[in-house]
Each structure stands twice: as structure tokens, then as C-alpha cells.
Amino acid sequence: MNRSSAEALFQKLAHYADTYKKAKCYWVQILAKGSFCENWNGEINGKEYSHSRVYKISGDQFYSLLSGKQDAFRQLYKALPKAIDFYLNSETISNKTLENSTLNEIKDETEKTNRTILDQITFENYSYYLGFDKL
Questions:
Q1: Are 119 and 126 a contacting pair, CB within 8 Å?
Q2: Measured between alpha carbons, how far is 134 from 81 in angstroms, rounded to an integer?
Q3: In this structure, what are the phi and psi dihedrals at residue 81, rounded to the nearest 5 degrees?
Q4: Strand ordering across the sheet containing 54-58
Q5: For the whole model, what pTM was predicted?
Q6: Which tens digit of pLDDT belongs to each residue from 22-38?
Q7: Average model confidence (pLDDT) for the chain?
Q8: 75 and 82 Cβ atoms separated by less than 8 Å
Q9: 42 - beta bridge partners?
Q10: With contact defined as beta carbons under 8 Å apart, do 116 and 81 qualify?
């Protein structure tokens, strides 16, 4: 996220926290470089920002906070292949939906690469992240 976007996001979250006095506001970083939940403060574009109820949180910590389960994010990742298979095999998908669809393209790639659909989607979107180039 660039500095202007970070500044705008902080201002929106701080405004929401000021409007709703019991609210805690989170910037969720799904692909963070570590696991954390911390007060978001610091300097953005030369201005100091701090708010007692505005936080930065990694995806795993956020899912843990929402669910009350320490490994909720991992459980979600493990459940995705089953959910994707269920959806793909359901009657809600018509043949017309599959024609000329991104899903069809992903399925074609999985046949070439021997990846699961989830791994193929992850590879195509995050292959430049550490470790994801080996999926």
C-alpha cells in the first residue's frame, strides 16, 4: 500500500473510531511478513498518526480474533480445497457459466501444472511472494 493510501485508510479508521466510541478498527494484512496485532501508529507522509483503537493486524491474528480459535486462518486454508470442489461439483454451475470463464482457464492450467485449484490460484496471484514460487 502506498503512503497516500495508508494515510487515507488511517484517517478513515480513526474517524470511525472517534464516531463509534466502543469500536476497535483494524487494518487487516492477509499476506503479512509476520504474525502481529498492534496499535497502528507512526509517521505517514511526514505526519504523525496514532489512535488508541486503531490497529494493524495480520490475517492469522484477525481470523483468530473473529473466531476465538488460534489456528482459524490455517483451518480456513485447509478447508478451501473441499469448498472449491463442492462448488465445482454442485448443480449451481451451469455449463454456460464454465464457458469462457476464468474458472475454466484455471482448470486448464491445473491439468498442465498438476496443482490443485487453490494452489494454482495462489501461484498465479502470489508467485512473487517468498515460498509461493514453489507451489
A1: no
A2: 18
A3: -60, -40
A4: 25-29, 54-58, 37-39
A5: 0.68
A6: 999 999 998 888 899 99
A7: 86
A8: no
A9: 49
A10: yes
